[in-house]
Specification:
This protein is α/β, with parallel strands linked by helices. Helix content is 41%, strand content 21%. It comes from Rheinheimera tilapiae.
Length: 224
Amino acid sequence: MQVLIIEDEQRVADFLARGLKAEGYFPSVVNDGAEALHAIRTQQPALVILDRMLPNLDGLTICQLIRAQQLPVRILMLSALGDTAERVRGLTSGADDYLVKPFAFEELLARLNNLANRQSGAAQRNCLRFAEIELDLDLRQVRRAGELVNLTARELNLLELLMRNPQKVLSRERILANVWSMNEDPLTNVVDVYIRRLRNKLDKGHAVGYVRTLRGTGYYLSSD
Protein backbone atom coordinates (compact mmCIF):
# COMPACT_ATOMS: atom_id res chain seq x y z
CA MET A 1 0.00 0.00 0.00
CA GLN A 2 1.33 3.43 -0.95
CA VAL A 3 1.89 6.01 1.79
CA LEU A 4 2.81 9.63 1.15
CA ILE A 5 4.82 11.25 3.96
CA ILE A 6 4.49 15.04 4.01
CA GLU A 7 7.16 16.08 6.50
CA ASP A 8 9.76 18.88 6.31
CA GLU A 9 12.03 17.54 9.06
CA GLN A 10 14.30 15.26 7.03
CA ARG A 11 15.34 13.10 10.00
CA VAL A 12 11.72 12.28 10.83
CA ALA A 13 10.81 11.74 7.17
CA ASP A 14 13.71 9.31 6.65
CA PHE A 15 12.87 7.45 9.86
CA LEU A 16 9.23 7.03 8.79
CA ALA A 17 10.13 5.99 5.24
CA ARG A 18 12.59 3.32 6.43
CA GLY A 19 10.23 1.96 9.05
CA LEU A 20 7.23 1.79 6.73
CA LYS A 21 9.24 0.16 3.95
CA ALA A 22 10.37 -2.53 6.40
CA GLU A 23 6.69 -3.15 7.25
CA GLY A 24 5.72 -3.71 3.61
CA TYR A 25 4.38 -0.26 2.75
CA PHE A 26 5.56 1.75 -0.27
CA PRO A 27 6.43 5.17 1.15
CA SER A 28 7.38 8.37 -0.64
CA VAL A 29 8.32 11.72 0.86
CA VAL A 30 7.41 15.35 0.16
CA ASN A 31 9.14 18.04 2.24
CA ASP A 32 7.16 21.12 1.19
CA GLY A 33 3.47 21.82 1.81
CA ALA A 34 3.12 23.53 -1.56
CA GLU A 35 4.01 20.26 -3.33
CA ALA A 36 1.66 18.09 -1.29
CA LEU A 37 -1.54 18.30 -3.36
CA HIS A 38 0.31 17.70 -6.62
CA ALA A 39 1.99 14.64 -5.12
CA ILE A 40 -1.35 13.25 -3.91
CA ARG A 41 -2.94 13.71 -7.34
CA THR A 42 -0.05 12.12 -9.24
CA GLN A 43 0.89 9.32 -6.83
CA GLN A 44 -2.66 8.56 -5.62
CA PRO A 45 -1.59 7.10 -2.25
CA ALA A 46 -4.07 5.30 -0.03
CA LEU A 47 -2.68 6.92 3.13
CA VAL A 48 -1.08 10.27 3.92
CA ILE A 49 1.06 11.10 6.94
CA LEU A 50 0.76 14.87 7.21
CA ASP A 51 2.89 17.08 9.43
CA ARG A 52 0.98 19.97 10.98
CA MET A 53 3.77 22.58 10.62
CA LEU A 54 5.12 22.82 7.06
CA PRO A 55 6.80 25.51 4.97
CA ASN A 56 4.70 27.47 2.43
CA LEU A 57 1.43 25.69 3.22
CA ASP A 58 0.53 24.40 6.69
CA GLY A 59 -0.95 21.00 7.41
CA LEU A 60 -4.40 22.27 8.40
CA THR A 61 -4.80 24.08 5.09
CA ILE A 62 -3.55 21.09 3.11
CA CYS A 63 -6.02 18.86 4.95
CA GLN A 64 -8.92 21.21 4.18
CA LEU A 65 -7.93 21.38 0.50
CA ILE A 66 -7.69 17.58 0.26
CA ARG A 67 -11.23 17.25 1.60
CA ALA A 68 -12.60 20.14 -0.48
CA GLN A 69 -11.22 18.51 -3.63
CA GLN A 70 -12.50 15.10 -2.48
CA LEU A 71 -9.16 13.35 -2.95
CA PRO A 72 -9.72 9.74 -1.76
CA VAL A 73 -7.04 9.40 0.93
CA ARG A 74 -6.94 8.70 4.65
CA ILE A 75 -4.94 11.27 6.64
CA LEU A 76 -2.90 10.77 9.80
CA MET A 77 -1.84 14.19 11.06
CA LEU A 78 1.37 14.56 13.08
CA SER A 79 1.95 17.52 15.37
CA ALA A 80 3.91 18.66 18.42
CA LEU A 81 0.73 20.52 19.45
CA GLY A 82 -1.04 18.07 21.69
CA ASP A 83 -3.65 19.89 23.74
CA THR A 84 -7.32 19.12 23.21
CA ALA A 85 -8.10 22.29 21.26
CA GLU A 86 -5.34 21.60 18.75
CA ARG A 87 -6.37 17.96 18.33
CA VAL A 88 -9.91 19.12 17.64
CA ARG A 89 -8.65 21.65 15.07
CA GLY A 90 -6.75 18.91 13.28
CA LEU A 91 -9.66 16.49 13.21
CA THR A 92 -12.23 19.09 12.16
CA SER A 93 -9.95 20.19 9.32
CA GLY A 94 -10.50 16.72 7.85
CA ALA A 95 -7.82 14.48 9.37
CA ASP A 96 -8.90 10.89 10.08
CA ASP A 97 -6.51 10.59 13.03
CA TYR A 98 -4.11 12.80 14.99
CA LEU A 99 -0.83 11.70 16.58
CA VAL A 100 1.28 13.89 18.86
CA LYS A 101 5.07 14.13 18.51
CA PRO A 102 7.18 12.55 19.86
CA PHE A 103 5.50 9.21 19.18
CA ALA A 104 6.35 5.52 19.27
CA PHE A 105 6.63 3.99 15.81
CA GLU A 106 4.55 1.03 16.95
CA GLU A 107 1.66 3.36 17.76
CA LEU A 108 1.95 5.13 14.41
CA LEU A 109 1.97 1.75 12.67
CA ALA A 110 -1.14 0.63 14.57
CA ARG A 111 -2.97 3.82 13.64
CA LEU A 112 -1.97 3.44 9.98
CA ASN A 113 -3.15 -0.17 9.95
CA ASN A 114 -6.47 0.94 11.40
CA LEU A 115 -6.85 3.61 8.70
CA ALA A 116 -5.88 1.10 6.01
CA ASN A 117 -8.57 -1.30 7.21
CA ARG A 118 -11.08 1.55 7.24
CA GLN A 119 -10.02 2.44 3.70
CA SER A 120 -10.55 -1.09 2.43
CA GLY A 121 -14.08 -1.10 3.86
CA ALA A 122 -15.01 2.38 2.66
CA ALA A 123 -16.40 1.17 -0.65
CA GLN A 124 -18.92 -0.98 1.20
CA ARG A 125 -20.35 1.93 3.18
CA ASN A 126 -23.97 2.76 2.78
CA CYS A 127 -23.88 6.31 1.35
CA LEU A 128 -26.22 8.68 -0.42
CA ARG A 129 -24.74 11.32 -2.73
CA PHE A 130 -26.15 14.41 -4.35
CA ALA A 131 -23.83 16.87 -6.10
CA GLU A 132 -21.30 17.89 -3.40
CA ILE A 133 -23.29 16.29 -0.56
CA GLU A 134 -22.41 12.88 0.86
CA LEU A 135 -24.52 11.29 3.59
CA ASP A 136 -22.93 8.26 5.26
CA LEU A 137 -25.91 6.32 6.58
CA ASP A 138 -23.76 4.02 8.72
CA LEU A 139 -21.81 6.77 10.48
CA ARG A 140 -24.70 9.26 10.30
CA GLN A 141 -22.32 11.90 8.97
CA VAL A 142 -22.81 14.54 6.29
CA ARG A 143 -20.12 16.22 4.23
CA ARG A 144 -20.39 18.93 1.61
CA ALA A 145 -17.36 19.29 -0.67
CA GLY A 146 -15.49 17.11 1.81
CA GLU A 147 -16.22 19.30 4.83
CA LEU A 148 -18.13 17.84 7.76
CA VAL A 149 -21.57 19.39 8.36
CA ASN A 150 -22.88 18.94 11.90
CA LEU A 151 -26.59 18.10 11.83
CA THR A 152 -29.01 16.99 14.52
CA ALA A 153 -30.70 13.60 14.24
CA ARG A 154 -33.91 15.21 12.95
CA GLU A 155 -32.03 17.31 10.41
CA LEU A 156 -30.23 14.18 9.21
CA ASN A 157 -33.54 12.38 8.73
CA LEU A 158 -34.89 15.34 6.79
CA LEU A 159 -31.83 15.47 4.55
CA GLU A 160 -32.00 11.72 3.98
CA LEU A 161 -35.60 12.02 2.80
CA LEU A 162 -34.66 14.82 0.39
CA MET A 163 -31.61 12.92 -0.91
CA ARG A 164 -33.68 9.80 -1.55
CA ASN A 165 -35.97 11.95 -3.71
CA PRO A 166 -33.58 14.25 -5.62
CA GLN A 167 -35.19 16.94 -7.79
CA LYS A 168 -38.62 15.85 -6.53
CA VAL A 169 -40.79 18.37 -4.69
CA LEU A 170 -41.95 16.98 -1.35
CA SER A 171 -44.98 18.49 0.34
CA ARG A 172 -44.96 19.53 3.98
CA GLU A 173 -47.46 16.75 4.66
CA ARG A 174 -45.17 14.09 3.21
CA ILE A 175 -42.18 15.44 5.12
CA LEU A 176 -44.19 15.42 8.36
CA ALA A 177 -45.31 11.86 7.77
CA ASN A 178 -41.81 10.56 7.00
CA VAL A 179 -39.65 12.56 9.39
CA TRP A 180 -42.02 13.21 12.31
CA SER A 181 -44.51 10.33 11.78
CA MET A 182 -47.34 12.86 11.98
CA ASN A 183 -50.18 13.71 9.64
CA GLU A 184 -50.69 17.22 10.99
CA ASP A 185 -48.24 19.90 12.10
CA PRO A 186 -49.03 20.77 15.75
CA LEU A 187 -46.62 23.71 15.64
CA THR A 188 -47.94 24.95 12.27
CA ASN A 189 -44.44 25.62 10.86
CA VAL A 190 -42.10 22.90 12.18
CA VAL A 191 -41.17 21.78 8.65
CA ASP A 192 -40.35 25.34 7.60
CA VAL A 193 -38.18 25.79 10.71
CA TYR A 194 -36.17 22.63 10.07
CA ILE A 195 -35.79 23.37 6.36
CA ARG A 196 -34.38 26.77 7.32
CA ARG A 197 -31.95 25.17 9.78
CA LEU A 198 -30.86 22.62 7.18
CA ARG A 199 -30.34 25.31 4.57
CA ASN A 200 -28.28 27.44 6.96
CA LYS A 201 -25.99 24.54 7.81
CA LEU A 202 -25.72 22.94 4.39
CA ASP A 203 -25.79 25.86 1.96
CA LYS A 204 -24.45 28.85 3.86
CA GLY A 205 -21.15 30.07 2.45
CA HIS A 206 -21.53 28.16 -0.83
CA ALA A 207 -22.23 29.69 -4.24
CA VAL A 208 -24.96 27.14 -4.98
CA GLY A 209 -27.78 26.41 -2.53
CA TYR A 210 -29.18 22.90 -2.90
CA VAL A 211 -32.20 23.12 -0.57
CA ARG A 212 -34.94 24.73 -2.63
CA THR A 213 -38.50 25.88 -2.03
CA LEU A 214 -41.40 25.67 -4.46
CA ARG A 215 -43.68 28.26 -2.93
CA GLY A 216 -47.00 26.88 -1.78
CA THR A 217 -46.02 23.31 -2.71
CA GLY A 218 -43.00 22.01 -0.82
CA TYR A 219 -39.23 21.50 -0.75
CA TYR A 220 -36.65 19.69 -2.83
CA LEU A 221 -32.94 19.31 -3.64
CA SER A 222 -31.56 20.73 -6.84
CA SER A 223 -28.14 21.72 -8.18
CA ASP A 224 -29.43 23.55 -11.26
